[in-house]
Amino acid sequence: MPRRRADVALRSEPGPSSAPALERRTIARGARIVLRPGFANGQLQYAAPIVLGDQSFYVQLDTGSSDLWVASTACNTASCRPKTGNVPRYNAGTSTAQRTNRDLSITYLAGSAAGPILTTNTNFGGASVSHQAFAAASDVQSQQLASMGVSGVLGLALPANSLIQETLEGAGPSNRNNSQTDPSMTGNILPGLWNNTIAGSRYFSIGLQRLPSDGGNGESSLTFGGVDQAYMSTPAQFSWQAATADGDGVTRKWTSLLTQLLVTVNGTDVPITTPALSGAFPKAIWDTGASFNYATPAILNALYGAYGIGPSNDGSRGYYVPCDLLIQITLVINGRSLWTHPLDNNLRGGQGPGASSSGCFASFQPLLSDNPPADLVLGAPFMRSVPTAYSCDSILENPPPGVATTPCDRPQIGVFSPYENDTSRAAARDQFHQVRVLGRSLGDDSKIEAGVGLNNTDEAAGRGLSSGARIAIGVVCGLVAILFVMAAVVLFYKRRRARRNALAGGRPGEKEADDPFLTAPNVSAKERAAQRELLILNGRLPEEVIGPADDQGNGLAAPTADWDTGSKGYWEARAVANDWKRRMKDEEDAAAGVTGLAGNRGSGSSHASNSSARRPSIARMKSGEEEYEMSDAGSTAALQGISRRPDDHL
């Protein structure tokens, strides 16, 4: 819900003083829009789909404000680009939206949004509205868009409360307030939806559900010109009363008068004193966009004081309650007693995907503003217990025939209570006992949580995964990763073992000189080359694995060019072989009394003449991007061979 006054930035360029003739198709009577649940401040919120031009979004349903805005691609704040989740943003660069050369700045009870005002063709609830004004917000602050699963806000309060309308028309007598019918001149979508509508049908009703684990059963919905049969059978079941105007006589918000407040303690109804900020009775604003209910501290101290609970001393001055405390509250509005479900009075903290419980909160929290908009704000928790309706027609039953011709200057609010008898209230108390006292769940929340915080567009429908599915996928991926690592380790140790065996001085002559695979007919050159490299890795010299050709030409008499001299294994094997040859020569020279390799290098007496008695140390060299191990005795020969290959780097 926006504050009473807002800063609106105006540019010097003129606005759209004259709009072209507009073609509209009014919303169908009885059009039902399913609302998708999301989470803000760990509490349930509700979103509706909308199409702006050719771009689709979900927007938060907010009866406490009157403007439509979505985050744009120019917005890079934490609200638009969160660390977790995704916020689809409006791309003005690829749209056909028209600029108004005006900017909007709107501030809510928590957070704000600002950006240029545009107009574009809009589709909502199956109805097309031409040149609907909205803001492409480039600066969004403290709005939990990702956790709510939305890209912006759809304000469904009255047009006179639209800050976009105030910006485009100008404040004062020139503002047409609730008689505005041109959607290009207001950020409120109701004038465009209700233009040329049949008299008696300019109203919408709202029904909200709790989480399935708290007994929610069915869909939350927004219905135009009718009611959702899941909540009631006819609009006649509503108790209607005129919305309360502001001090200047203009009705801007859906505001009712609270005539009585009661709580039930130990089976006894206790009246609560409700001092009003102004007037004889406290004013209450209906606001689906509020994740809690709110009231002045004077009202809340009396309300929760009846249960022995006071404000916290942690600086927030909020009201925390034991999760198993049964709180029963009744508000009398429009002459009707509105008893609220105990699970809507005592709220679990930290609800939503990835959230952890943080105790329980009273559903009413304090209005700490120096200039609060009303005495009470009846948010989503209260409205889950009380289906409501909002009308621009003063006559709903037996209205005059034909199209409505009067402006929306006599708005009304309808309320309905599903808990008007002892049976329904006893069932609600039993649900509270099951959930909060016995710790049982009344339903599965995973399907609701799956679609939130991923993507607000229709493509997200196929990508929403439940928590169980995400865990299963993670386990499978983990097992695959473990198997991959194990295979890599086994391969590594096999290669190292083969390398160590070769470096240990194994004599090539100890293996058979002939290999049946190399002498077999019909063996391709590529297969023979691979086998030759394998033999070299096991200590065989090239000249030992090249034999005479057979009669069919399938023998091994092949030039040296047939060897894969560009492979790591070839040069590694050559180094091993050359080392072995040198040691053999040292042994022969030692036996003949000739100075060994150590003396030739001038290493003195620190080296034994029989160098084959020690294991050669390992030196490292680079060829290309890889590092090879080889004995220091054979490294010289190997490097000499590699130096003849111009495509390698040391």
TrEMBL record:
GO molecular function: aspartic-type endopeptidase activity
GO biological process: proteolysis
Transmembrane segments: 471-493
Positions with biased composition (Low complexity): 598-616
Protein name per UniProt: Acid protease
Signal peptide: none
Coiled-coil ranges from the UniProt annotation: none
Organism: Tilletiopsis washingtonensis
PANTHER family in the record: BETA-SITE APP-CLEAVING ENZYME, ISOFORM A-RELATED, PEPTIDASE A1 DOMAIN-CONTAINING PROTEIN
